Amino acid sequence: MITDNRLCLAKIRSLYPGFSTKELKIADFILRDPQNIIHLTITQFAEELNVADSTVFRFCKRIGFTGYQSMKIALASEVVTPIKNIHDEITEADDIKTLAEKVFRSNMKTLEDTMAIIDADQLEKAAQFILTANKIEFYGSGGSYVLAMDAYHKFIRTGLFVSAPPDSHIQLMSASQLQEGDCAVFLSHSGSTKDILKTCQIAKKAGAKTIAITNLAKSPLSKQADLSLYTLSDETDHRSEALSSRIAQLSYVDALYVSVMRSLQEDGQEALEKMRNAISSKRI
Question: Considering the entire predicted model, what is its pTM?
C-alpha cells in the first residue's frame, strides 16, 4: 500500500481550499511543474516565488512534512518513479487480461490515494449529520445518480428516513421541502454540475445540513456544501477519472453506512432484520 508520506501532490490538492494567499502561490508552483521542484534548493524555490525561505518551510510543515527536503523526497517518489503499471495507458495491443489488470490497478490506486487524504474529523461529522437527521436525501446527476441510488439502497437498511429523488426537477422540488434538522448528501465527481449546485443551494436555503462527496477539492460544490469528502483519481485517454472515482465515492458511502449502523446498535439491527424478513419471500 502507498504510504502517506509519498502522497505530496495528493496532500496539496486535498488541502488546497484552506490555503492562504502565499500558500496558494507555493501550491500552484509545485502542481504546475513538480518535476522541476525536485532540482531546486529551498533558497532557489523561494527566490522563484519571491518569498522567504521560512515561508516555504512552513508550507512543507503545513502539508505534513518535517521540512523542505522530506517534501522533495516524497515528491520525487511520485514524479520520478511512479508505479508504472497503474499509470499505463490502455493500448490497442493490450489483451483482455492486461486491460483488466490496468483497470483494477487504477481502481486500487484511487482507493489508496483517497484513503491517504481522508479527513477523519470531516468523516465523523458527516456520519453525525446523517445519524441525527430527521430526513436524509441523496442526490446525484447522470452517472452519479447511480451512486445516490446505491447510497439509498444501503441506508434504507438503517431504519432512518431516507430517499433519493430521481431527476433534476423532482430533486429541486424535494430539496425545497427539506427543513432544519434534515440532511442532504450530494455525489458529484466534478462538483460543477449546474443541477446539483442549484439543488444544494435550495437545500441549504431550506435549512438542511449538506454533505458533498466529490473529486475536486476546489470545485463549486465543495465550496457550497457544509462539509466535503474528497476522492482522488487519475485520468487517461481510454478511462475517464470519473470511473475510478466512483469506487472511492462508494467506499465513502460504505464507511458512512457502517459508522451509522454501529451507532444505531440494536435499533439498526432491528431495522436490518425487518428488511431481511420482508425480502426473504423473493428468494427461492
Answer: 0.74
